[in-house]
Amino acid sequence: MLSAGIDIGSRTIALVVSNGKEIVQSAVVDTGFDPVKKAAEMAAGLPREVSVTATGYGRHAAKSGFAGQIITEIKAHALGAGHLFPGARTVLDIGGQDMKVILLDEKGNVEDFQMNDKCAAGTGKFLEVMAVAMGYGSAGDFGEDSLSGVPGTRISSMCTVFAESEAVSLAHRGADRRDIGRALHVSVIERAFGLIERVGGDLPLVFTGGVALNPCIVQLLRERIKGPVLVPENPQLVGALGAALKGLGKK
Amino acid sequence: MSGDYRKMWESIGLDLEAHDQLLQALPPTYGEVYLTQENRPAMDYFDFVVNEIHGLRIQELQDHKAAGGKVIGTFCVFVPEEIIHAAGGICIGLCSGIEIGSAQAEKVLPRSVCPLIKSFMGFKLARVCPYFESCDMVVGETTCDGKKKAFEILNDYVPVHVMEVPQMKREKDRLLWKGEVGDFLAGVEEVTGKRVTAESLARSVREVNGKRRALARLSGLRKNSPAPISGKDSLLIEQIAMYDDVERFTLKVNQLCDELEQRVRDGVGVHSPGAPRIIVTGTPMAIPNWKVPHIIESSGAVIVAEELCTGLRYFENTVPEDSESMDQSLEAIAERYLNINCACFTPNTGRMEKLVSLAGEYNADGIIHCSLSFCDPYMIEANRVEKVLKEKGIPMLKIETDYGQEDVGQLKTRIEAFLEMIS
Question: Which pLDDT value is given to residue A118?
């Protein structure tokens, strides 16, 4: 039996079809201006007998449209991460506009969770804005290059707009952009670490969401938690995978 | 609203243009939040009162004033309303749960301040609240630094009598508070020009106790499963309690409770079987702030109690009615109010104990701690609440929010995830 999960986020829409063991089909597209329509088109391409479970910010709109059931991103990431890494105790998900930390019990049930406040600080969007400000063509290049930055530079503002001007004035004072880049990545990690501390996160920790593709973030997170960071092959699919698993009756 | 009240609004000094804008901006949500609920008990009276919030009730206040009566506004459940009634006054809760007049309020207040404080200052400075404009005196208190200092500013626009609420509950604090209650009595007598007698005070104590008992009766019925009334409707009634006529309101709540008792006997409820039962705790939710309760209940849960100032803190415990003298009466009143579990006290262990016992009595599956932004007392005390609830194995979700709507999506995700977690 096949089941589809669709994760309608602020930056991307991810689709996963699973048989309960592995991912048999997947896609990730930009959210664009009409996410529900886009998601509906993606779902329309599926065979009729495949049930669709929606998650992400667009889940309620999807429910009144094409989705059979909905679950929150928290539950979806917990299910997806627990499936890929049985025994995981903490999930850190950094997506386009939010950051969440989920504490799992030994059976993979959600025991507690924390989400960032209502602003973009410490999220994928924050890194995208900073990549542009620092003159990189993509957030990927930005992360790659920032890996070689050296410690010592500090960004103190949590606000995306103020952090950008702080970074730009550091550049004007002649700081190396890789060092500034590293400092910007550190500010994201400090925010994530604060949330991890608040739930009392245990190891092993799974890192999901699009930002887990950023090598600098992963490296800094490893250093900050002084432990291994498990990153799935396709971290941006984990929420959709969890939703698909929910459709197969996983709890 | 049914009648044409423009003349009345103009005569009490409202800024009509700004007031029109307010009426348009009032959350069009009443219909969406309240009237779409399924299987509601008979709430016609309360729907009517909300609908006439700036109409008929204001007319009543004006008629009362025309007959020589006075109107006294308050911002806190610590202000003894029986004293106001005993002097023939009408007591009106002025707290507001909507963002209004921010630009005017920011002329005198910092930008980052509690939304409740900003709202009352905004209402006063923009001259759009007919309750405020009907007041002969307003009563402030010292339950937080923000209000305490804001009352100094408010005094420039309307006379404010400030009561000092102590920060601890020792014997010397009880004495201080009793003195404050006595001073308040004198202040009320001065404004109303009427002497409070032992008889008028005793009668007033009985009347206000009657309101408390009616609300406690309503609250008790919500212990049943299924709950016979939604949390949103209960909150609405608790909000209306702050400004409606005491005796009429008491009668209407008791009539509603008769119906709810029948519902309980018939096993009729307002939610689907197995809906998670939630207790809400934290800062007051002043009318028309229904934001978080609406998210909670539209996510499939039912709120069974509010450990809030617009909730249990307002009506639990009555004033003993067997006082034989004025002094005894004042002492009994002071004692009743000082037992309120407000986060302005240190320590405030009574609140944690209360929450644990409520969770048992109301068979709650979880507690949602909801605080207004910039409310240090409640936001910091949330840590104490969390610690005790964790020890008792009671799940808790902590929320910080204001009167804006931009975080509704975020809150919905958090609340739904919490419900998934405890189901």
Answer: 65
